[in-house]
Every structure is written in C-alpha cells, then in structure tokens.
Amino acid sequence: MDAICDCGSIVCLKCKKHGHEPLNCHMYKEWDDNLASVLDTLNNNWKKNNTKSCPSCKTDIEKNQGCMHMTCAKCRFEFCWLCMGDWKKHGSGTGGYFKCNLYKPDDSEDLGAEYIKRLQFFTDRYMEHRRGLEMNDDKIKVHITLLEGKDSKYRQLNSEVTPKSLDFYLEALKFAAKCRSFVVYTYPIGFKILEADASALFAQTQYFLEYSLEKFDKYLQTKGIDTLIDQNEFGVCLSKNYSNIKAELLNIQVKLGEQFKNAKKEFADRDYLMQIDMDFQQRQNDLKKSKGFGPG
Questions:
Q1: How far apart are CA 149 and CA 142, in angstroms?
Q2: Which helix H or strand E contains 149, and what residues bound it?
Q3: 10 Å Cβ neighbour count for 167?
Q4: CA 101 to CA 201: how far, in whole Å?
Q5: What dihedral do alpha carbons 194, 34, 8, 121 form, nearest 10°?
Q6: pLDDT digits 0-9 by tens, 184-243
Q7: CA neighbor of 35 nearest in space, from 211, 295, 210
Q8: To 10 degrees, what angle do helices 25-41 and 111-148 make?
Q9: CA 6 from chain center: how many Å?
Q10: Which helix (H) or strand (E) holds 12?
Q11: From CA 132, how far away is CA 232, in angstroms rounded?
C-alpha cells in the first residue's frame, strides 16, 4: 500500500503513516511504538557517530550518502559501513549474502542475553538504513529545487531547452528511496525469524535486494545530475555523455526493480508475516515463563 508523493515522501495509503513495506500496518505500529523503549534498553555503545575510521588507512570518514558501500577518499579502500569489512567480500566471497547481515546466535549465552544481542544486531542495521533513507529524502528535495528553481539552469534545460529530459533522474532518486525504505523495514522481520535455515534464506533474498540497491545508489552518486548537462555558446545543453549515462542508469534500475519485485513477493506475503509473528510471540511467551524476561 506504499505510494511515493511528488515531493519524495513515502506514505502508506492504508494507515496514512510513513511507508513501511514489507511490514503490515500492525507490525509497523508494534515496531514503531516500541522503538523508543528498545533504544533505551540497548547499550548506548551501539549508536553510531557520523564519522568512522577507514579500516585501511584509519582516516576519519563522514558518511554523507545513503548507501552502505563506502570508498575512502584518501586510500580508495572500499568497505561496508555496517561491519567495516572489505566490500569485495560482501558477495560470493561470503556465501552469496552480506555476511554482516546474517545473525548467528550465541548458544553459550542465556536466553536473556541472547535476546538483547539479537535486538541490538537488527536495530543497529535498521537505524543505519533509516539514516540512509533520510539522506535519500534530502537528496530528492535538493533535486526538486534544482529542477524547479526560478534561476536554475537545470529547470531551464528541463522545461525550455529539452523538456522533461531530466525527469528520469528525479524518478530514479525516488525509486532508490522507495527501495531503501523497503530495506529499512525488512530488519524488524529479520529480528523475528528465529529458525536458522529460514533466517539464512531471508538474509539471502535481502542480500540480492541490498546489493542491487547499493549498486544503483553508487551509480547515482558517481553520475550526479551535473554530468547530464553542459554549456555551449548558445547556453545550457545536454552533455555528450547524457545518452550513455541515462541508458546505464535505467539498465541498473531495471535490475533493481526485478530484485525489488522478488523481495516484495516473498517478504510482504500476508501468511508469511503472520507465521513469523506467531512463532516469535510463542518464543517470547516461552522466554518469559522460563526466565521472566522479554517485553510483551
């Protein structure tokens, strides 16, 4: 039921709250209502600063884009913002999914400690991707201003010189935001999947979507809207690379769309979500009976 507004905001048409696919409205309300108390429960050490050190050269890096694929400006080392691992190992080298996204329970810990560890793992990733979504939203607002600003050369090109030639770029940003929003709300589902094989299958489908999204987001970063325009003696015009950039971007977007469709089919299935919720609630009831732990 998610829809994206012209301004870039994602809204659920059913509950009128922020878009929350693949969660149904009940699961979203439960997660959102409990989030504040969850953050209070967790150790504050999990909260990430905007700056981390490059794993290779130790240079401080500020995250200012939505994707988790980072490249150090100094040494060009590519790494994952979530686990700080080598980006080259985030794929087939880790068995076909982001290794840092696959939670592995620690059987040596008691149930209460394991619950907190699991909660921290998934909430950490939820918050990082939500911050990435906020960056996506900010980027959309900036580009809307570029395309509608009175004295903007982008508006002049898009409305007067070559009408609608830049519309595809704004739509690409909006699609990236919708996919990022979907990824954000896969983590509350992952938190509730307790069976190891089911968790691994979930992480694999999640990986295919995230990998395609990171590739798409990275392309948008490296091929900004400024690469689509140029200036000649007659004024503003399309750049010589415009056609190639547009074709490459749309090709990557099509592949992302395929993974998004597959993930929606699996994760947003009503029976699938209901079964996960029931299994998790049963586990919580058992946990409270055995250890007197766990929120309702």
A1: 10
A2: none
A3: 11
A4: 12
A5: -40
A6: 999 999 989 988 888 888 888 898 999 899 999 999 999 999 999 999 888 899 999 999
A7: 295
A8: 110
A9: 20
A10: strand 10-12
A11: 36
**Under 8 Å between Cβ of 180 and 66:** yes
SS3 content of the chain, % helix, strand, coil (to 5): 60, 10, 30
- State how far the Cα of 31 lies from the Cα of 39, in Å rounded to an integer: 12
CB 202 within 8 A of CB 148: no
Sign for the pseudo-dihedral over CA of 12, 15, 20, 23? negative
> How does DSSP classify residue 231?
E
Which DSSP state fits 18? B
**For the chain, domain boundaries:** 2-51+111-291
Q: Is domain 2-51+111-291 classified as CATH 1.20.120?
A: yes
Distances (CA, A) of 130 to 34, 44, 73, 162, 260: 16, 18, 24, 36, 17
pLDDT exceeds cutoff 50 at 48 = no
Which whole-number Å values give the CA distances from 179 to 66, 157, 240, 260, 261, in the listed order?
12, 28, 30, 7, 10
The closest alpha carbon to 66, from 171, 137, 158, belongs to: 137
Look-up: residue for tokens 């990275």?
218
The amino acid at residue 99 is K
Asked if residue 296 has pLDDT above 70, the reply is no
pTM of whole model > 0.70?
yes
What average pLDDT score do residues 92-112 get?
Answer: 60
Q: Percent of the chain beyond pLDDT 70? A: 83
Q: Which residues pair with 78 in a beta bridge?
A: 71
Number of CB atoms found within 10 A of residue 31's CB: 20
